[in-house]
Amino acid sequence: MWEKQPSGASWIAQLPKLNSTQIAYNDEFQRARLRALQSVDEMIERLVNLLDTKGVLEDTYVFFTTDNGFHASQHRMHPGKECGYDTDIHIPLIIRGPGIAVNATKDIVTSHTDMAPTLLSLANATRPDFDGTAIPLLPSASNATRGEHVNVEFWGIGLPEGKFGIAKPLGGLSYPNNTYKALRLVSGNYSLYYSVWCTGEHEFYNLHNDPGQMHNLFSDAKLARDFELAGRSFQDVVYRLDALLVVLKTCKGDSCIHPWSELHPSSASSSASPTSLLQALDPAYDSFYQTHPKVGFSSCELGYIPEAEGNVDHINFGVGAGVDWDDVAAAEDSPARKGQEPFRYRGSWSDWV
Question: What does the alpha-carbon distance between residue 84 and residue 309 come to, in Å, rounded to a whole number?
Fold first, then answer.
């Protein structure tokens, strides 16, 4: 995955190619991280043995997971964890306990917002205001109501690890302009990643063909023109993803679980609302999505500053929001979107980074 050409967006797209010394160091860095997990293995063994000794192991649910993934050399990056790629967001979730089948797996989309409702469901309890839903762990639970989306977002800076750390041309102790909003959608028909950066840049990866997320369709006009989903174009798909991202970036409760219903409130006189990207691609909705507000930023900030994001209440057609489709229709050897020069933090923040 050591690409000859840069990939990604914002500071990632500006990174120089890693040399053999840096790649060897990052490989050893990752091996050292795996060695450090031996202490975690030993801790889990002691915990399980203690539960067994106390006679409560078979009445106890044990959850094994983490808060984030990790990248090391992918996209030319030094070790770190603040990006939206699968290396950083695709994490393990292993559960044992009463009623859970041995060695069974669930091929469903979940996120951290599902953890609290899952724990409560095991205690036969619930709350109406969760942003997620209980993971169907027991045989009696159904997968039918599961969604296909995960909302991914980060504000601030990228913090590399390891002795090589920051590389030119940016310099310093961190990478600026690491603020973005993103979507990860997975179903039997597609596996997509879409992001909007505070710099105005966009990313779109078709992970069925590009699991390493190396070929951004916004940077390759031919890939963008050749892409289709359910007979719809790249442009049609991105219009839907922009609208979905506008909802998810400020959602609460049920609107986080059923965001398409937020976009298409059902009524007694209307047909059923879309519940997936595939259904939302119906040409009948084209006009609605083409004119729907788009995600955009007015500046790159170090934290969640709603005023810098726009669309706080799903209504804003600010400058820089959405996609310039004239670029997508450019010549075959021309990139679909060139992006913009990164914003810089204002005032003392610029000095700090």
Answer: 18
What is each CA distance from 20 to 17, 165, 225, 255, in whole angstroms?
10, 15, 36, 47
In contact, 2 and 74? CB cutoff 8 Å = no
Using CA atoms in the order 36, 40, 41, 46, what is the torsion angle rounded to 10 degrees? Answer: 140
Per-residue pLDDT at 269 exceeds 80: no
Strand partners, 151: 183
Q: What is the mean pLDDT of the chain?
A: 85
Whole-angstrom CA distances from 45 to 51, 56, 104, 185, 254 are 10, 15, 21, 35, 39
Contact status, residue 206 vs residue 241, Cβ threshold 8 Å: no
Between the CA of residue 104 and those of 62, 107, 247, what are the distances in Å? 15, 10, 34
Residue among 207, 214, 85, 90 nearest 154 (CA): 85
Domain borders along the chain are: 10-352
The residues facing 192 across adjacent strands are 185, 206
* 127 neighbors 252 (Cβ within 8 angstroms): no
Q: Decide if 187 contacts 45 (C-beta within 8 A).
A: no
pLDDT tens digits, 209-246 = 999 999 999 999 999 999 999 999 999 999 999 999 99
Residue type, 279: Q
State the average pLDDT over residues 182-198. 96
Q: Which two tokens stand for residue 77?
A: 């990056």
Work out the average pLDDT over 276-295: 95
Neighbours of 2 (CB within 10 A): 13
* Of the listed ranges 191-205, 257-271, 284-298, the one predicted with least confidence: 257-271
The contacts of residue 239 (CB under 8 Å, 6+ apart) are 286, 289, 290, 292
155 within 8 A of 301, measured Cβ to Cβ:
yes
